Amino acid sequence: MNEFIEQFLIEARELVEQGTADLLAAEQHPDDAEAVAGAFRAFHTLKGAAGIIDFAAMARALHAAEDALSAVRSGARPLDRDLTGRCLSCLDQVVAWLDLIAQSGEPPADAEAAADSLVALFAPDPPPANGPDRPTGQPDPVPAASAVSEAVDALLAAQAALLRGPRDEGFEGRAAAALATAVNVLRAAGEGDAAAELERLAQAGAGVADLVRAMRRASPEADGLPAPAPAAARSPQQGGLRGEEAAADSGARSLRVDIGRVDALVRLAGEFTVLMNAAGHAAALAERGEGRALAPLLKRQHGALERLVDAFQHAVLALRVLPLRHVFQRFPRLVRDMAQALDKPLRLVIEGEATEADKAIVEALFEPLLHILRNAADHAIEPAAARRAAGKPETGLVVLRARREEDRLVVEVEDDGGGLDTARIRAVAAARGVASPEALAALTEEEAGDLVFAPGFSTRPDVTDYSGRGVGMDAVRVAVERLGGRVALRSRPGLGTRVRLDLPVSILKTEVMTVEVGGQVLGLPLDVVVETTRIPRAALARIGAARAFVWRGRTVPLLDLSGVLEAEGSTERSSEALVVVTLVAGAYGGLEVGRFGERMSVMLRPMEGLLAGLPCLGTTLLGDGRVLIVLDLHELQL
Amino acid sequence: MAEAEPIRSGRRVLVIDDASLVRLYYRQLLEDDGFVVEEALNGLEALEALLVGPFDLLIVDVNMPRMDGLTFLRTLRRLTSAAAAIPALVTSTEAAAQDREAARAAGANFYLVKPLEPEVLTLHARLMCGVPA
């Protein structure tokens, strides 16, 4: 993909986000001129970007929306829900196009139909006519390359027009610039004499008429630009200071890495270089046969490398930190759509979006939060009539907030809806066999509320677009636990519900290989696995109580993992032993396993409570909900 | 431009545009054509840049946050320094006569409609800087 397309995609996606945010802000606060101007500018800049990559269809569609927003900006039409919706549809199409471009590296060729329907979408209320010469994507009226002389004529004519302009405050500057430009153009066009004459006249303080004549001498019939309009038609305020106060915070919307964090990486890179040179030195020593000196040197280097790798991991983790804004900013649009689809007035308030956490956590939060917000919009918030009857404001309130609590990230979704209907939840749980009637009867109200997290629970008989396919809160729980977090729910009848996600701030992915031992699946950290191999049982040698085998000229002790773990069943069945060869603390070892599994990248949760003493690195949830225990081979006595 | 021009004119151009893609595009075209290019993201940044370095040409976008192109030009042309006389080329997506006229009234020396053919940009930049086309 070429550089322009790459840059285009980055910029266009930022602009879509900005445009969406500004549109929604403008819809909620029609008097917010900054939001309207921001939305207009986003569409405008997107259109320009589309033009640069020669994507005329996209430019055309955006142009239609931009015209409508221009009319809003000038006060000629209101930004109602309908128009906001159309503009958002336009951005949706843009996103679809961007995805196509990201795949293929070039603008789609068949975008005309989609562009036509978008243009038609904006057609019913045409904005004030701007003249027939507005469509973008067309070549500039100025002729290209070959017609140098035409460009020269047009440029000179424009300078003459500037000189003939009104004698207001900026005239001196404009005239000086016009003269400088005309001299340059004449000189570039090979009219050195004319240029010198013009300069002489200007220095002599010649009148405008003489100066203009001097310019025309080089190009007699030039008339590239229309004659200057009457002074009254010129409004200095037009397009004037409007944007000046609109403090652009587009920087906050894009992902930037703190320069300090980059510097830390640069420093570490330097240290790695030093260490690399030292390794070269060690190699030279080895070559000269100075083995005795080598050992302490390598030991020191190993220590330094260990420290460096550790520092490097920390520095890289710091790079991966993202503000929650990254996911939060997608929700206002989605909640708006939900509100419209459910025909419930909803207001989403976002707090703490600057809170930071590991990229992996932040990005993985989108789906669970979407589920929770859908639940809030669909189940929790009552229909407007019911809210009125309960003496609540018709517009339902949903608050999405994030904050740090020590080294935890807390994300909450709180609504002012009706709270959980625990009686109904108990009934449904009983009907679906989530728990026995006795167990259900014994539950406290709070525990009854937690039943919504039980697998396969959903209280809505009807399946709506937005939630209620029976995967909602259960899926949320699984997703959050997979991130090493917990989810809790608090409900106050008639007042609302709060769902609280408690998550780690950072996360390390570990590469593991799974093996099966005595019917149980276990994980081995991949960094200690050298290879997997099959050893004929006949080749296994008994050395006292232990066993060993010869592998690549080495005698390697073999450990039956099922024996170590006291797992059920022996692996003494087949004629070959399945062996994972490991390298732990410089020593090779073999682990006999029942079956080789697969390789995966997982997020480990540390062992807690009673399990903390076990020789395990941690646990992770497998896709099917089972817990995978990852062994710590350093701790396992081999 | 039939013959490629390897000679570096060394003419200094300030590209003022809030769209990074536009800046990148102009920079590439102009640098390939021997110009030295600096960038500003809006009118205010451009005024700052003008305090520091001399420029032979300003290429100005119209719609920008903080200070738009026309406000920038009006401010520029009222300066008492030599910067007031620097040629300015406005490039905008608007092609209507009233937009061209507004730009000229603000002090633009020429007006081109985006998107621009590469040769159109370099041709006008050369001419306005006094470099043979």
Structure write-up:
Chain A is of the alpha+beta class and 638 residues long. Chain A folds into five domains: 3-122, Four Helix Bundle (Hemerythrin (Met), subunit A) (Up-down Bundle), CATH 1.20.120; 148-229, no CATH class; 259-319; 323-504, Heat Shock Protein 90; 509-631, OB fold (Dihydrolipoamide Acetyltransferase, E2P) (Beta Barrel), CATH 2.40.50.180. Chain A has helices at 3-28, 33-52, 56-73, 81-104, 112-122, 148-163, 171-188, 192-203, 208-218, 250-253, 259-287, 291-319, 325-328, 331-342, 359-364, 366-380, 384-389, 422-431, 437-442, 445-449, 472-482, 561-564; strands at 321-323, 346-351, 356-358, 396-405, 408-415, 486-492, 496-504, 509-517, 520-525, 529-536, 541-543, 546-551, 554-560, 576-584, 587-593, 595-603, 616-621, 627-631. In chain A, the strands form four sheets. Chain A has a six-stranded mixed β-sheet. Chain B has one domain (12-129): Rossmann fold, CATH 3.40.50. In chain B, α2 packs parallel to α3 and α3 (69-77) runs parallel beside α4. The longest helix of chain B is centred in the first third of the chain and has 13 residues, at 20-32. Chain B starts with 11 loop residues before the first strand and ends with a helix. The relative contact order of chain B is 0.19. The model of chain B is unreliable at 1-6 (pLDDT under 50). Classes of the chains: A alpha+beta (638), B alpha/beta (133). At the A-B interface, α1, α2, α6 and α7 of A face α1, α3, α4, β5 and α5 of B.
**What is the residue-averaged pLDDT of chain A?**
79
What is the residue-mean pLDDT of chain B, rounded to a whole number?
88
Reported by name, the CATH topology of chain B is: Rossmann fold
Largest interface: A-B, 75 and 62 residues
Basic shape of chain B: globular
Look at the structure and name the CATH superfamily of the largest domain in chain A: Histidine kinase-like ATPase, C-terminal domain
Report the principal-axis shape of chain A. flat
Q: What is the CATH class name of the largest domain in chain A?
A: Alpha Beta
- Beta-strand segment tally of chain A: 18
Please count the helical segments of chain B: 5
Tell me the major beta sheet of chain A: 6 strands, mixed
Report the span from N to C terminus of chain A. Answer: 51 Å
- Highest-level CATH class of chain B: Alpha Beta
What's the alpha carbon Rg of chain A, rounded to whole Å? Answer: 35 Å
Number of strands of chain B: 5
Radius of gyration of chain B: 14 Å
CATH superfamily (homologous) name of chain B: Response regulator
Helix-strand pattern of chain B, N to C?
Answer: EHEHEHEHEH
Strand order of the largest sheet of chain A: 10-14-15-13-12-11
Structural class of chain A: alpha+beta
Known CATH architecture of the largest domain in chain A:
2-Layer Sandwich
